[in-house]
Design goal:
heterodimer, A: 357 residues, mainly alpha, ABC transporter involved in vitamin B12 uptake, BtuC, two-stranded antiparallel ribbon, 17 helices, B: 505 residues, alpha/beta, Rossmann fold, 2 domains, 19 helices, globular
């Protein structure tokens, strides 16, 4: 027995010890290690490096009023989508219909201003959110009651929602002149050099992030993603929570649809095509496990920021179109491989530590 | 205890029946548990204890019968309802969320809240520490549940049940993976809960534990209520005869077979964290049993030998020829057959016909120019199905509609069609009703008689003792005993299965 225990002390390094006995540290030290070791910090580091590289090459990338504004403004919509997508993925599901939902609510926003002249902007926001939530509810009900994988359900609704926009809009296009200036200016307006869109995205992020961490429903979502069968045995409201995740994702897609209209001014039926995959990519890059149960919306938001910023920085760095796409692909693959390797290593270490004890 | 008999029973079940498709799990089950009592529920595996528990827990709904909790008729359709009514269940196999912390696992769904309905994490951790203190264990409340040993997982389940403040606590073989010290601690907790006036149901296969802990015992057999006795008024022998209700020899028709040369030789097989330095051999005509507690690593060893799982070091040889690791196809070619534990998921295409299932593994040798006809499949399947007396109307019947025993025979037929030299079979009779069990046993015995080497994994001790020529006992991933048929008794096997647990801690 004695030789196994010395072997044990060697194999149980400090990292494993920290996993086994996190309470041995003071609360402050614990928080510091958690933050420093988190995926979020690693991605933020990559993001910072990209910004620095682009700025060195072209100083206006950051140091100009437009550069700074674009850096914050461009990713705002994707951050909103990624936050919703992250919540869905945490419950071990996926929502591929967010791009179509965005298009539907964006076109609806334009139509509301055209057909109901003088409609208050607040009402448009409320309607956008509500319509998005209803579309999300359709997804959620189909997934929760139909017992069909969400990948298939939301792939279906991706085409159905897009089809609705296509039929409704046809070749019509909403132009900036159709919408009131007060609404359009929201899209680019800044307060204290922070764009309003970014503020909205950050507020949503903080609220959702706080909710997931501190409320029972939020923790339920992690539990459901971690082990759906155990969640059922625990008596958690699995269907209700999964449904809620889809409603949130839909509502945020609806909100981004309204903001899309304000930001770009022109809306055609092809708005937001393919953005759902960017959202999934951002979530994965941000360290949310694709099989659910772990990760945070903070990571997803930083992932969205990184994805958009890299897309803008690569042309500045003189990288060809093909490689720009490939870099994004490599980033997603790298994130998934890193995720698998880290979690495999973690469980192996914990099991070895158990063996040794 | 006995004086409380006059009070309203906490739980009362009468004439409860439950069927799953063609399988009758419970025909007329009954149990009455009083507050302040620890009630043992005993019976062979497959007697219906787990189904009974799941009905009380709200996992299954009874087909008929009475179900009263605290005197009131109830009908749970979800586990949340039974929890709310004060029923806590510790399942045989722990169900935890690996990604979440130990504390979150205990309080999931009913975390202590502070203002604004926010989770009060500080209070939650403090309460978890309190629970662990009460149980006398040292588990960091903030560590993830991932990587906990089975015993520690069980402790988490118990902590969860205690924190529920339940009036009825059901423990389904909670001691199966615990060491002596841990069992003592659990019993102390159980007694203190009893003294608080709660009712406990305790399922165990270890009679010493039943006599040590419980005051009343209910025996079940074949889905039926048999008898309820005061523990003080009964004996082990009486309980065994009530449980079995028939001669053991009838159940396990072991025919002695001549034992030949070694077929499978395993040397120093090691997989970090799963099993260590496993060496054994199986001879032609021999049935070798692999016994041990749930989670000891038996199935993992079998999966590694067959090449499904990876291993770090060691060697597997079949008839002296090394079998490459991580390559089940090579293992099949070399002459191995593997029947996994969960035949519905891993061993059988339940939507396909019997013929297609049987012909499945030899498909490549049946196809002509890459095409496979249903006729060729039927032709190949017929002799095997006939030999095993698979009772299906026709070979084109879907496997899903067959009983567990017949499904198992189809799986065995499927592998025999490959003419194996070694058959690895994991839990051969799990989920099979008692009548058909004997048929599966007779079949295995016959196959050994024809010179097949069989490696059998089983959690049912009577099955192991009745069927095998030799038994290897695994404990926490290590071989702790190699017993011949006449040395193997329930005591020697159980001691070896819990041995290193007790010496290590």
């Amino acid at each position: 027995m004695s030789d196994t225990s010395t072997h044990a002390e060697e194999s149980v390094d400090r990292e494993t010890a920290a996993m086994l006995r996190p309470s041995s540290k003071s609360p402050a030290a614990r928080m510091l290690t958690t933050v420093l070791r988190s995926r979020e910090i690693a991605i933020a580091g990559v993001l910072l490096a990209v910004i620095v590289a682009a700025t060195v090459k072209t100083p206006t990338f950051l140091f100009s009023s437009n550069g700074w504004r674009d850096l914050l403004l461009t990713p705002s919509l994707l951050i909103l989508l990624a936050v919703g997508e992250a919540v869905v993925i945490i419950t071990r599901n996926v929502d591929l219909s967010v791009g179509s939902t965005l298009a539907l609510t964006a076109y609806l926003t334009g139509r509301l201003f055209v057909d109901q002249a003088g409609i208050p902007v607040v009402a448009v926001f409320a309607i956008g959110l509500l319509v998005g939530a209803v579309l999300g509810l359709v997804n959620g009900l189909l997934v929760a009651l139909g017992r069909v994988p969400s990948l298939v359900i939301t792939l279906g609704t991706l085409y159905i929602y897009r089809g609705i926009v296509l039929t409704w809009a046809g070749s019509n296009r909403i132009n900036a002149s159709d919408m009131p200036d007060g609404f359009l200016s929201l899209g680019t307006k800044t307060i204290l050099s922070i764009p309003v869109l970014t503020m909205i995205a950050v507020v949503v992020l903080v609220v959702v992030g706080y909710f997931l961490y501190t409320h029972r429903a939020g923790r339920d979502m992690y539990a459901i993603g971690s082990d759906p069968d155990a969640a059922k045995l625990y008596g958690l409201k699995v269907r209700q929570r999964v449904c809620a995740a889809f409603v949130l994702s839909g509502a945020l897609a609806g909100l981004s649809g309204v903001l899309y209209a304000a930001r770009y001014g022109t809306i055609s039926s092809g708005a937001g095509t393919g953005i759902e995959l960017q959202a999934v990519g951002a979530v994965v890059i941000g360290g949310v496990a694709i099989f659910g149960g772990s990760g945070t919306v903070w990571g997803a938001a930083i992932g969205a920021l990184l994805l958009v910023t890299i897309n803008r920085a690569l042309p500045i760095l003189g990288i060809q179109d093909f490689w720009q796409q490939a870099v994004v692909g490599a980033l997603i693959l790298g994130a998934i491989i890193l995720d698998r390797t880290l979690s495999a290593r973690r469980s192996r270490k914990l099991i070895e530590a158990r063996d040794a004890s | 205890m006995a004086s409380d008999v006059a009070s309203t029973p906490t739980l009362e079940l009468r004439d409860v029946a439950k069927t799953f498709g063609p399988v009758v799990a419970l025909s007329s089950a009954a149990i009455t548990v009083h507050p302040g009592s620890i009630h043992a529920l005993v019976g062979e595996n497959g007697a219906g204890k787990s189904t009974l528990i799941k009905i009380v827990a709200g996992v299954h709904r009874r087909d008929s019968g009475e179900f009263r909790l605290g005197g009131q008729t109830v009908d749970f359709s979800s586990t949340a309802e039974s929890k709310a009514a004060g029923v806590a269940v510790i399942y045989q196999e722990p169900t935890l969320f690996p990604d979440l912390s130990v504390t979150e696992n205990i309080f999931m769904g009913r975390q202590p809240l502070s203002s604004g309905r926010r989770i009060d994490r500080a209070a939650m951790y403090a309460e978890a520490e309190g629970l662990f203190d009460r149980l006398g264990v040292h588990i960091d409340p903030r560590r993830p549940a991932l990587g906990l040993s089975i015993a520690d997982q069980q402790i988490i389940e118990i902590a969860k049940a205690i924190s529920l403040d339940a009036r009825l606590l059901i423990m389904d073989e909670p001691t199966a993976a615990l060491s002596g010290v841990e069992v003592d601690r659990l019993f102390a907790v159980a007694r203190s809960l009893r003294d608080e006036g709660r009712a406990l149901i305790f399922i165990s296969h270890r009679f010493d534990e039943v006599f040590d802990l419980c005051d009343t015992v209910t025996v079940m057999r074949d889905g039926r209520y048999i008898s309820t006795k005061q523990v003080a008024d009964t004996t082990v022998d009486e309980m065994v005869s009530l449980m079995v209700g028939r001669e053991v020899g009838e159940l396990f028709p072991k025919t002695p077979a001549p034992i030949g040369d070694p077929v499978l030789t395993v040397e120093g097989l090691t997989s970090a964290g799963v099993f260590h330095d496993i060496s054994f051999e199986v001879r032609a005509g021999e049935i070798l049993g692999l016994a041990g507690l749930v989670g000891a690593g038996r199935s993992e060893i079998a999966r590694a030998v067959f090449g499904v799982d990876r291993y770090d070091s060691g060697q597997v040889r079949l008839n002296g020829v090394p079998v490459p690791p991580r390559n089940p196809r090579a293992a099949i070619r070399a002459g191995m057959a593997f029947i996994p534990e969960d035949r519905r998921k891993q061993g059988l295409v339940t939507e396909a016909s019997v013929a297609r299932n049987v012909a499945g593994v030899i498909r490549s040798s049946l196809s002509k120019a890459g095409f496979l006809t249903a006729r060729a499949e039927s032709r190949a399947a017929e002799p095997w199905a006939g030999r095993l007396e698979v009772k299906t109307g026709a070979l084109d019947m879907d496997a899903a509609t067959m009983s567990g025993g017949n499904q198992q025979k189809v799986v065995i037929a499927k592998w025999l069609a490959t003419h194996p030299k070694l058959l690895i079979i994991d839990e051969p009779t799990r989920g099979i009703d008692v009548g058909t069990k004997a048929e599966v046993h007779r079949l295995l015995s016959e196959l050994a008689g024809q010179g097949l080497a069989i490696l059998m994994i089983s959690s049912e001790l009577p099955e192991v003792l009745g069927m095998v020529d030799r038994v290897l006992v695994v404990c926490e991933g290590r071989l702790t005993a190699n017993l011949d048929r006449d040395e193997a008794t329930p005591e020697t096997v159980m001691r070896a299965a819990t041995h290193s647990l007790e010496t290590q801690r």
